[in-house]
Amino acid sequence: KDGVIYLHDCNTRSGPFPYCEHMRHGVFSVTKSLGASVAMLRLAQKYGPELYDLALSDYVDIQAKHDGWVGVTFSDALNMATGVGDNQPRPVEPNVIHGDEDQAKFDKFLEADSAASKLAIAFSYNNYPWGPGEIARYNSINTFLLSAAMDAFLKQKEGPQADIWDMVVEEVYRPIGVQRAPIMRTIEPDGGKGLPIFGYGLYPTIDELAKITTLLQNGGRHEGQQLLHPGKLAEALY
Prior knowledge:
By secondary structure, the protein is mostly helical. It is built from eight helices and six strands; from the N terminus they run E-E-H-H-E-H-H-E-H-H-H-E-E-H. The chain has helices at 31-47, 74-78, 104-111, 115-122, 140-158, 164-173, 206-217, 230-237; strands at residues 10-12, 15-17, 98-99, 137-138, 221-222, 225-226. It has a two-stranded antiparallel ribbon with strand order 1-2. A two-stranded parallel sheet has the order 3-4. Strand 5 and strand 6 form a beta hairpin. The two termini are 21 Å apart. 34% of the residues are buried.
């Protein structure tokens, strides 16, 4: 509140941890908001909000055995409303998002190391009878596909050395005082950097969480500089 963090003691199974401000936390699916969504908002600020309507298939080589990914946009993937998944159709209930991760296939996705192996599992999911943008089904494969698409988009704009997470850290996190932002990436057989998974895997401190969420509450603006697209951020927070 007003720039001051009020924090409980950091109690662990081995007793109090004395350095609460340095303790990192796995925020799991909050990574979808503080990672993937922030990346989209930064790209939209740099290159225009039309980014949200781009087709995933123009940036990722789709290898599914069905045409369910046709017409799926960056926005659909961010909203996890791709229309792709294995959960049996149910009646649509207002404000209820059913899961699509509670199965052995997603365990294989978690265990897969490389981007190629994770994408192969993502493409093994079936096609729902509805189209993209209609019904949200919770599945981190959607966010990972978005990571691959955003990274490819950025490389087209800024060259092969560009990296979607490095861009977020350099252009959003560090300007607000977050100097380090460890995130889980794929493990590539050639020793390459790997893609940020984005469905999970961000490890912030409490201080970093406060700075990032303050930026979001301030409309993506920091010290007079617009870091994130204000219109799309307002839509996300509605």
